Amino acid sequence: MPSAGEQARILVVEDDPSILELLELYLSGQGYTVDTESSGAKAAEMVREGRPDLLVLDLMLPEQSGFDVLKQVRSFSQVPVIILTARDAEHDKILGLELGADDYMTKPFSPGELVARARAVLRRASSGESASLQAGDVELLPEERVVRVGERSLDLTPKEFELLRYLLYNRGIALSRERLLEEVWGYTFYGDARTVDAHIRQLRKKLENWSPLIQTVWGVGYKLDPNQHPAAEAEQSDGASGTEQSDEAAGGTPAG
Asked: The whole model's pTM is what?
């Protein structure tokens, strides 16, 4: 991310010349440095070489789809990504966000709204980026995109990482499922609360005996409680199914 007072570099990958010109005009007018590319086959390499602060990505690209580009990019970079596309089906939105996109906009779109979303995504990506976050033996290093439990490194998906980071950043605070969907998946993602529950279950499994850090708040959602102690291995094994049942029961009350 750019340092204070420094404008971000944005890479726009779009095959429609008129839209590409419009985006370059609006984003550069806000002081951003804008690079452009119309080919899906060249997009990932431009991210690798140019190291942009934000990628605005169309899905229907020649030679290679935007989904394939996103998969490639996520194999080596956690650059924030806004998908901008005419594909408005719910399954496309879910797939894009699950692959690691930070936001999803559909065409036709407002250039002013895109600028506002770009600013919000860049702000989220840069807030607290260099400071490590810790609770118990769990340590998250934002810049390195690494999570450690003691000496063990966790293999997390992009969304699991962002979810854990948001919980750690707001440790001790009860967070509704709606707020987690908005902040971690992007405010345009009107997903089912079960999406959050499924990711929480995966995080708990990967945290193993430190899973008690993530507490279910009945009728609300979840909170990370830094005062929790690690569970004994036997307790963790015996309590796994009970934790999932309690999440389902808590989910019966709409999150507020």
From this structure: 0.57
